[in-house]
Amino acid sequence: MTTHPHDPGATGQDDALRPELLASPAMLWAGGEAWTRVARCEPSLGRTWGRLVMPFAAIAPLMLLFASHTHPQAFGLAPEAHNWEWVAVLLWLAECATVWLMGTMLHVMVPESPARPSREQAFLLAALAAAPLWASAMVLAVPSVAALLVGQLLGQAACLRMLVRGLRALRPGAEALEAVHLAVMVHSAVLVLWVLLFGLFLISTVTP
């Protein structure tokens, strides 16, 4: 049964979403019950952004600030040449923009059908799919470029996997190949955006 923002049961179901976000690694392979619960929920956009996106998207900016103050040389950063607080804010905005892009594409690109995810469900799936990307920023605690690259690659792969599983959960009657195709298209757009952002970040912050 779909839960709407004005439904008194919405709060209880929305509160159950946080454990799903934190348990997203398990949802990559199993988590059938968690995906079923997600498919039944339709939290408001305000709840998804306020409870999931905005707080958890702050992981990468906070880890960037940590790395810039503790081991900037490991990443070739110039801590004295930039206001890293503002860089962190821009990174947080980019993280939020990524979720907005994924949510919009998931809602627009899925064909019209009774099983088409609502806008609220599309943005919820986008937030859950972004969770591995946010978690991958934790490798900034390790002063190693190799660890950072491996973490990012694993985060991108996990994001794609979450998109596929989420689309199949939200559209149980659809073909598996169709879910993979839609997930790849959405993830490709996000990947291009992040390559451009990461390139601009390197150009502007790395020590010459």
What do these coordinates show?
By secondary structure, the chain is mostly helical. The chain has one domain (53-205). It has ten helices and no strands. Helix 5 packs parallel to helix 8 (119-136), helix 6 (59-70) runs antiparallel to helix 7 and helix 7 packs across helix 8. The N and C termini lie far apart (57 Å). The model is unreliable at 1-13 (pLDDT under 50).
SS summary, helix count: 10
Low-confidence stretches: 1-13
Topology order in helix (H) and strand (E) letters: HHHHHHHHHH
Strand element count: 0
Sheet having the most strands: none
- Mean of all residue-level pLDDT scores: 79
From the alpha carbons, calculate the radius of gyration and give it in angstroms.
Answer: 18 Å
Helix fraction by DSSP (H/I, runs of at least 4)? over 70%
Q: How far apart are the first and last residues' alpha carbons, in Å? A: 57 Å
| Mass-distribution shape | elongated
Percent of residues in beta strands: under 5%
Helix and strand arrangement:
Blueprint: H1 10-15, H2 17-22, H3 24-27, H4 32-40, H5 45-56, H6 59-70, H7 84-109, H8 119-136, H9 145-170, H10 176-205
Give a quick precis of the structure.
The chain is an all-alpha fold and 208 residues long. It has one domain (53-205).
Provide keyphrases for this structure.
208 residues; mainly alpha; 10 helices; 0% strand; disordered N terminus
